[in-house]
Amino acid sequence: MKRIMFALSTVVTAAAITFGSVAPSYAANGVFIYHNAAGRQITLDNPLSDKCLTIEGAGRAFNGTDDVVLLYPHAGCLGHPEHIKPGENGVNLDFGSVLFAD
Question: What is the count of structural domains for the chain?
């Protein structure tokens, strides 16, 4: 009986460690406003932090979030990014994906 209880407690502990260690998702607080290639203004409200978003932008953007925005030239957050700090604008931009870095 002691072996069964020990084995059961080991399984429960392992499950708690495995499933209890999932990192929560956090969002950048605020808005990110950008323009697409057609010149249409688009607003992202409280976008997820540390997640690559494939969105195409051109022209200008405003970072109204509390995260630094990394604007990548290609989808999948590939290439050398442009940085826009919180509260700042970016101009003459051409990007294929973004990442909000907290």
Answer: 1
